[in-house]
Amino acid sequence: MTHFADKGIDQLDRARLLQLYEDDTETLISTIEMFLDEVVPAFQVLESLIESQDWTGVCGMTHQLRPWLGMVGLTQLEHRLEEVERLAKKKTEYELIRITYLNFTEKLEAMQPVLKAELQLLTK
């Protein structure tokens, strides 16, 4: 089954960014920088929680990280992380949660250069 987020995953949700920041470029720059420098590394902690099958920890961590994805225009990834959280809440089979998360992280890695390019455009 194809997930709706598979289409156009390499694009930022510009409508969401406009809604959140309007003309406040400085705040957007700061948010993207913080996301890349501080939030992205936190996904390694989430991966450890998944590996140890700490579903309570996974739910708490995904709940903390999800809004950040939307704040930098990665709305489609926000929905994918929400799926990981939903599966963890239901204590779904470990392998399904792991595969869902690995798919998410693959897309997250692919979007980091897009965010860095956006940052370069914004800081010119």
Automatic annotation (TrEMBL):
GO terms for biological process: phosphorelay signal transduction system. Residues 24-122 form the HPt domain. The keyword Phosphoprotein applies. Keywords: Phosphoprotein. The modification Phosphohistidine is found at H63. The keyword Ribonucleoprotein does not apply. GO terms for molecular function: protein kinase activity. InterPro entries: HPT_dom_sf, Sig_transdc_His_kin_Hpt_dom. This is Hpt domain-containing protein.
